[in-house]
Amino acid sequence: MSEDHKKELILRSSFEEMEKLESFVNKLQNQLSFSDAQYNRILLPLSEAVSNAIMHGNKQDPGKKVTITAKSLENKFQISVRDEGGGFDPSSLPDPLKEENLLNQGGRGVYLIKEYADEVSYSDGGAKITMRFILNK
């Protein structure tokens, strides 16, 4: 997969659709020849981003889509997740490591994404997240 080529997966806003993520990342792994460790380092934050897009962005509206776009850039791999919601301000999220938040049910997805990806950026008012991974790290 070169910079000119990108792979796209469009999901309905339903958690059942998340089953398609493993197959999508498997195909990317076969094309880019990254390790199983890198596979896991990509799949976990991708799953978190898609889950957030379905739940928070699209409010589980089956009429709305989540678009996943992947492309390679030299020794980097980039994957974006875009929902059809109004977006959010990632800096407004509470720190999940603060004592008062440790027992909260949710709120760790964005933190995990930042821990696993080498670079994370938001655009479209927070409705799109782009994660970059350095391959062969």
UniProtKB/TrEMBL annotation:
Q: State which residue ranges cross the membrane.
A: none
The record's listing under InterPro entries reads: Anti-sigma-factor_SerPK, HATPase_C_sf, HATPase_dom
**Keywords linked to the UniProt accession:** ATP-binding, Kinase, Nucleotide-binding, Serine/threonine-protein kinase, Transferase
- Lineage, broadest ranks: Bacteria, Pseudomonadati, Balneolota, Balneolia, Balneolales
Q: Which Pfam families match?
A: HATPase_c_2 (PF13581)
Write out the GO MF terms.
Answer: ATP binding
Name of this protein: ATP-binding protein
**Known CDD domains for this protein?**
HATPase_RsbW-like
Report the source organism: Fodinibius salsisoli
Q: Domain Histidine kinase/HSP90-like ATPase: where?
A: 15-133
Q: Which domain of life is it from?
A: Bacteria
